[in-house]
Amino acid sequence: MYTKFRGDEMKAKALKINAAGIVLTLLITRIIYKLTNFSYSFKGGVFNPDVMMDLGLCIIIFVGVTTLLEKIYDKKVNK
After folding, report:
1. Domain residue spans in the chain?
2. 78, 64, 65: which is closest to 19 by C-alpha?
3. Closest Cα partner for 61 from 15, 34, 19, 27?
4. Where is the chain membrane-spanning (predicted)?
5. Which of 17, 53, 62, 77 could form a disulfide with 25 if both were Cys (CB 3.0 to 4.6 A apart)?
């Protein structure tokens, strides 16, 4: 008989949260870019300030979204 180990549950949780986090991050950044008319090109190179600002914004939003999703997921599981 196969029983699910705690590690399998944690991997499934991480996969769900990361997938949802990526999708929500893309949606939120697109909304922010539409509201602020932010755009950039790679004419100034890969490390130009606009690209670095975009990368930083994506990282900040992803961390915030995944943290929020983890808290929501834990509340649902612990009920």
Report:
1. 19-77
2. 65
3. 27
4. 12-33, 53-73
5. 62
